[in-house]
């Protein structure tokens, strides 16, 4: 209408501003969250020339993959990532964790080597589980050399034998045979070189239950095992 005052709409919005009764105002910004307290053992990743060579763990600790030091790590730093990753790259009929695999291997090993079997895949808390076909494709020796600093440092911190004894390898293979029987799709693969599976069928656990089972088994074995043998130089 001619002569009518030019009024702004009561509220006109765009992506960044609001016009309210002719006054332009910014949208209220959300209040920043309080920053989480960094773990005192954590490296300052901003000061590292190659931060991708350092792994940030769930607890907030950090691991230098070239020069790992686990002296201030706890067993929960191992149990939690092992419990939250699935064996066979997730290609199982139910979730089945690396942590539960380690417990099974420890139950299949001779009593004197049960602790070593429980910890035999501890480095996978920081590398992830490598399916055997990928180990063969990439090269077992290359993978073994790359993870050797991790394995040696973990053995020094937690006191298991490294390199792993032959009886631990057999327990690991028996666990694999059991998992192929109970958890994998029907398949035609020649597994005749594997030792016999366990008599009892696997009951898969969810991640939290698998972590609790791993920690319970760890504490049982630590309470009863003799002092570890001296490490070879």
Helix content: 25-40%
Largest sheet: spatial strand order: 1-2-3
C-alpha Rg, in Å?
Answer: 26 Å
Query: What is the level 1 CATH name?
Result: Mainly Alpha
- Measure the end-to-end span: 96 Å
CATH fold group: Hypothetical protein af1432
Label the CATH architecture.
Answer: Orthogonal Bundle
Mean pLDDT: 82
Tell me which oligomeric state these chains represent.
single chain
- CATH homology group: Hypothetical protein af1432
- Give the helix/strand class: mainly alpha
| Total tally of structural domains | 1
SSE succession: EEEEEHHHHHHHH
Count helical runs: 8
What keywords describe this structure?
233 residues, two-stranded antiparallel sheet, 5 strands, mainly alpha, Hypothetical protein af1432
Offer a quick outline of the entry.
The protein is mainly alpha-helical and 233 residues long.
SSE order and pairing:
Elements: E1 11-13, E2 17-20, E3 23-26, E4 54-56, E5 62-64, H1 76-83, H2 98-108, H3 114-118, H4 124-127, H5 132-138, H6 140-158, H7 166-182, H8 207-224
Antiparallel strand pairs: 1-2, 2-3, 4-5
Helix pairs in contact: 1-8, 2-7, 2-8
């Amino acid at each position: 209408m001619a002569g009518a005052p030019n009024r702004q709409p009561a509220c006109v919005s765009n992506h960044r501003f609001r016009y309210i009764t002719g006054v332009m105002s910014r949208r209220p910004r959300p209040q920043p969250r309080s920053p989480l307290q960094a773990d005192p053992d954590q490296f300052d990743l901003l000061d590292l020339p190659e931060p991708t060579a350092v792994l940030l763990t769930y607890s907030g600790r950090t691991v230098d993959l070239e020069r790992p030091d686990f002296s201030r790590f706890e067993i929960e730093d191992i149990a939690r990532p092992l419990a939250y990753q699935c064996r066979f790259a997730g290609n199982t009929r139910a979730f089945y964790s690396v942590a539960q695999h380690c417990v099974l291997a420890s139950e299949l090993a001779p009593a004197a080597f049960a602790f070593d079997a429980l910890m035999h895949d501890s480095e996978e808390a920081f590398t992830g589980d490598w399916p055997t076909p990928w180990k063969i494709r990439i090269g077992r020796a290359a993978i073994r050399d790359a993870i050797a600093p991790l394995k040696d440092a973990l053995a020094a911190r937690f006191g298991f034998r490294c390199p792993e004894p032959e009886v631990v390898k057999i327990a690991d293979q028996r666990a694999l045979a059991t998992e192929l029987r109970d958890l994998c799709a029907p398949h035609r693969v020649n597994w005749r070189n594997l030792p016999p599976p366990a008599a009892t069928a696997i009951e898969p656990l969810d991640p939290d239950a698998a972590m609790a089972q791993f920690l319970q088994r760890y504490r049982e074995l630590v309470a009863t095992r003799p002092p570890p043998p001296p490490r070879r130089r």
